[in-house]
Structure formats: structure tokens, C-alpha cells
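Usage

Read records sequentially. Each one opens with the input sequence:
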Amino acid sequence: MPTPPRTEPTPTAPPLERLTQLRDSYEALSRTRRELIILGVALLFGLVAMPLLIWVVGSHVLGPYTHGQDAHAGPFALLGDFFVGLAHGSAVFWSVALGPAALVVLLRLFARGVRALPSARSDH
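and closes with the structure output:
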């Protein structure tokens, strides 16, 4: 029984080439898909990264996060409390979760407004 031909492992693309490929595939998407990706990343950041960043800053500035009887609860205790707050509909928790997406929308509106301004050059 003949053995299958040996295939050489393909070397992975250099990091800059991978970034170029990623950029090209991103630019090939429709504008709607690109905007949804940006919004999804901002929402994910608000739901996961923001509470963890709040824990890091709070634990350094205010001291350890206490969770019930645990005087030194970790970041996942805060993340669990954060999701409970979201489930209860707390406006504070929802503002943290939606804050990055709102910031992206506001920055986009600001940029659109600046682009719509007439040019500041003077024609004499």
C-alpha cells in the first residue's frame, strides 16, 4: 500500500501580511456589516472589558472589592455582580455596558458634522 505524499507544513504568514489580509477582508464587507462589527466590538468591550477595567482601577485606588463575606473578591465576582445588575435593569450598569457603543456613535456623529462644515480656506 503506497503512502500518501508528504505535505510540507505551510509557514504562517508574517504578522504584517496577516494584518493586511484582515484589513482587505474587512474592507470587502458591506458598510452595514462593518458598522455592525464596530458596534458589536464596542458592546462586547462594554459588557466584559469595562467592568474588568473598573475592577482594576477600583482595586488600586479604593482597595479590594468585597463580595459578601469575601473581603478580597476577584474580578469575576465583580463581573458576576455586573451581570446581575444588568439583569435587574439598573441604569448605572447599563450606562457602563452601553457607554463604549454610545461613545463610538457620538464620535462618528461629530466627525460627520466636522466633515460637513464648509472649508476654512479663503479665496481672494
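Summary fields computed downstream for this record:
- The chain has four helices and two strands.
- Residues 36-113 form one domain.
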